[in-house]
Amino acid sequence: xxxxxxxxxxxxxxxxxxxxxxxxxxxxxxxxxxxxxxxxxxxxxxxxxxxxxxxxxxxxxxxxxxxxxxxxxxxxxxxxxxxxxxxxxxxxxxxxxxxxxxxxxxxxxxxxxxxxxxxxxxxxxxxxxxxxxxxxxxxxxxxxxxxxxxxxxxxxxxxxxxxxxxxxxxxxxxxxxxxxxxxxxxxxxxxxxxxxxxxxxxxxxxxxxxxxxxxxxxxxxxxxxxxxxxxxxxxxxxxxxxxxxxxxxxxxxxxxxxxxxxxxxxxxxxxxxxxxxxxxxxxxxxxxxxxxxxxxxxxxxxxxxxxxxxxxxxxxxxxxxxxxxxxxxxxxxxxxxxxxxxxxxxxxxxxxxxxxxxxxxxxxxxxxxxxxxxx
Length: 375
Ligand code: SF4
Prior knowledge:
Elements: E1 3-8, H1 29-42, E2 51-58, H2 66-79, E3 82-92, H3 99-106, E4 112-118, H4 122-127, H5 134-147, E5 152-158, H6 165-177, E6 182-187, H7 195-201, H8 210-226, E7 230-233, E8 236-238, H9 245-251, E9 256-259, E10 264-266, E11 270-274, H10 278-286, E12 292-296, H11 299-312, E13 317-318, H12 319-343, E14 347-350, E15 353-356, H13 358-362, H14 364-371
Parallel strand pairs: 1-2, 1-9, 2-3, 3-4, 4-5, 5-6
Antiparallel strand pairs: 6-8, 7-8, 10-11, 11-12, 13-15, 14-15
Helix pairs in contact: 1-2, 1-10, 3-5, 6-8, 11-12, 11-14
């Protein structure tokens, strides 16, 4: 088992662009914590190997108190064999990361903080309906460092309506000045069923042009490289080899257990996902039932995931492993479709791995879709 993901579905307020499952009513936190512990107990047999990563995502996991975390950690330690060097991450909002809260977290098993900063510009933060200010973001990083955290990641967002490349550059300069190990940077997506999508449909916001998006992505890659960040996955950059072990296990197709409402799990052959409703989740778990659906992946779906996730990373698609797991026919298919991209220097083969070149990264979606197996 690569890891355990725990979905904490509470947020104080809703950000304009967000389609993750969350609730703003926090009155069910105690019942939720109890349900997480019960679900872990019900699914203990799904985890046979030592647990190497634990990731509290959300939602806003930093809404939980010390008591909630202690209850969950106690249960995980009782049920599973946790590797003593396991990476244990908390996703946190900057406004929750006061000096006192950071110290409280340091007293728990967490050894990595992933902070949803998104921007260092107060106007952009306001547009995104984030609760924190740019100053709070900078202070939150300092509070975590002062509390003793040696592995800090921040999330940034670009391609916002009206955002200029110059403004994005200022965000990157500020990020690089921080003493952090990891940056995840994502282009804004207009997800259906968000307030942002409604604004788009009403013509109230103007999405970034392809040209601007490309310029910003290029700036991101170049500036972070100059500042000693290694570009190890399309949207992820790490200093000193501090890759996200949890997310890397997703990209390497390793197994994981997802606990909590809307959490997904993968056992190497099938995916399952819990109901995206706190109320239904608590009720079902209370009755000893798992509120989940399951889909068994076909051979070609597994091949597609293997190629897609591998190509996203700097390690690329391991071609020998591909041949071993999926057979000669799929191996030949992959190489045959990759050939034209190799000729155009968009893909390269290094030590038996198929890897996107710098130019290839810019059109990765197109390349990936050409390598997919269509039934
Ligand atoms: S804090 Fe995170 S999970 Fe909550 S609404 Fe904002 S983006 Fe979504």
